[in-house]
Amino acid sequence: MSNKTSRALIGLAIAGSALLTACASDDPLAAQAGNSGGKNYIAGDGSVMELAVDDRGESVEFSGQTFDGDTISTETLEGPALVNFWYASCAPCRVEAPDLANLSQEFGDDVSFVGVNVRDAAETAAAFERNFNIEYPSIEGRDGKILLDFADYVPPQAVPTTLILDEEGRVAARVLGAVEHSTLKSLLTGVVDE
Which of 25, 55, 74, 126 has the fewest CB atoms inside 10 Å of its own CB, making it the most exposed? Predict the structure, then answer.
């Protein structure tokens, strides 16, 4: 094989690889998940922490306003709850959004879902929720108050973080980083069946 033919084949391989990479995701921000370098977030490692009933601390007391002006608090949530910390340009948040939307529909009668948007204005948050068909409410959390309420469980820069609260409002599980559908479904089923 000539050098010219070898170079042509290598060039085709590189171009094909770039094309496959570009097609891997229709969402360029989601494609950056796991590569947080210089992207203004610290990517979680996907680690899961589950707490046995006897090992759970006190109920987490929190209260915040949605972008529509409604109040969501420990007292307004019924039954177990999922609390997801996110913002629109966070790549792992975009990766997990479809799973959260689907699971909120599947567990809607048994688990209250609420987001905490730590960075966006109302219009940006609403566009994200429309794009990913998210129907549960989000608290506007740019002031850091909600993060402070959950400080024992949510590292301030590890977004996304997902917490599952039991019926008493105690943290039953935490996922740092993008959640996986099967893992989150298992955690939700566990807290619902307690």
Answer: 55
